[in-house]
Design goal:
The chain is an alpha/beta fold and about 375 residues long. The protein has 15 helices and eleven strands. It has a five-stranded parallel beta sheet. Helix 2 runs parallel beside helix 15. The chain binds iron/sulfur cluster.
Length: about 375
């Protein structure tokens, strides 16, 4: 049987859209679009999309990698927990992320009980099978993973705890437009997050700051078409929100997931790596779930945390620098020996740039 053609990876279609982008961009002036999703950065770099765009269209990367935005302080908290004979579970990427002085991988190597899990269900099962252990899962990620953590807590055993490092994307976008010193003419909105939150939170941002936005999928044609729509919107001074990814994202999002989040979490102010505290951008466990809150149970106190010296992750996450602008990129900082979190995760800009083009596309 002939292989079915994936229209979203069709080179000819991609080339035609790129041609249209070049035509529409003439006379528009400089346009800087930000995406806030590590999977978008991966798709853009892997497909060489930046090289297809005219000089006046720039795609910058925002704080869309969940591992990268986790702060050194949060890693320090997890390491402190592991030092209190608590079993700490985490997704694999987090183990290498540097805290102030060490990482969870180093804590594990020194004998702490740190385990990699592939889903939060594995962590809950571990707690259930080991009632004598106190098991804490590091809850990271945006609206895509926060519902799974919330659902797991509905029926978790008493010896299961969560160190919530979950965050929500719209407050960070709001912060970048309100306080950021970086020009952003439009957003490519993250498809996975949008499948949960729908379009409404973006509409409020567009109304407030008059920036156009397009929700996009993750194939090259998705991203190119989103760029084309955004350039047209900038040209037409259309500050609305369009949904290019309607095969997955509904206007209203996923009401069940949103309800689960609302029941379990309340918004809190939290710092992101390289950012100060962003109001309402964190997800703290509500009092009803306080018995599962690792910060309450173990009264975590960690010292003021430090970012790695010379690391530009904060500026990379704000779209102010490209990975290749960091003096450590590819020299002292590589995926095998990461200095900052953006080199650790497969969704981190530095890791992606190293993997696909050693930064040359960005230079
Ligand atoms: S290259 Fe390494 S040190 Fe530099 S910004 Fe990226 S992760 Fe941080």
């Amino acid at each position: 049987m002939p292989e079915k053609k994936n229209a979203y990876r069709d080179r000819e279609l991609a080339a035609r859209i790129a041609e249209k982008i070049r035509a529409v961009s003439r006379g528009v002036g400089k346009v800087r679009m930000m995406h806030v999703c590590g999977t978008h950065e991966d798709a853009i770099t892997k497909a060489g999309i930046r090289s297809l765009l005219p000089e006046n269209i720039e795609i910058i990367s925002g704080p869309g990698c969940p591992v990268c935005v986790t702060t050194a302080r949060e890693i320090d908290e997890a390491i402190a927990l592991a030092g209190q004979r608590v079993t700490v579970t985490s997704f694999g990427d987090m183990l290498k992320v540097p805290g102030s002085a060490s990482s969870l991988a180093e804590a594990k190597a020194s004998g702490s009980d740190v385990r990699i899990v592939y889903s939060i269900t594995d962590a809950v099962d571990l707690a259930r099978k080991n009632p004598g252990k106190e098991v804490t899962h590091i809850g990271i990620g945006f609206e895509t993973t926060a519902p799974s953590t919330a659902i797991a807590l509905l029926d978790a055993p008493d010896n299961f705890f969560v160190l919530s490092c979950h965050r929500t994307i719209p407050p960070a976008m709001d912060y970048l437009l309100r306080e950021g010193d970086n020009r952003i003419d439009g957003f490519i909105d993250p498809g996975h997050v949008s499948a949960i939150i729908g379009l409404e939170p973006y509409k409020r941002i567009s109304e407030r700051y008059h920036v156009p936005q397009v929700v996009a999928g993750f194939e090259p044609v998705d991203v190119l078409y989103a760029i084309l729509l955004l350039v047209k919107m900038v040209k037409d001074k259309d500050c609305g929100v369009r949904n290019e990814y309607s095969r997955v994202v509904r206007d209203e999002g996923n009401p069940k997931a949103l309800k689960a989040m609302e029941n379990v979490y309340e918004p809190c102010d939290v710092a992101w790596r390289g950012f100060p505290k962003i109001p309402g951008s964190g997800l703290a466990l509500r009092d009803e779930y306080g018995m599962h809150d690792a910060r309450k149970k173990f009264r975590l106190r960690v010292k003021e945390s430090n970012e790695p010296k010379g690391c530009q992750c904060g500026n990379v996450l704000k779209g102010k620098k490209y990975p290749s602008d960091c003096g450590l990129f590819g020299k002292r900082c590589t995926p095998d020996s990461p200095i900052g979190p953006c080199m650790v995760s497969g969704e981190g800009s530095c890791n992606i740039a190293y993997k696909y083009d050693r930064g040359t596309q960005h230079a």
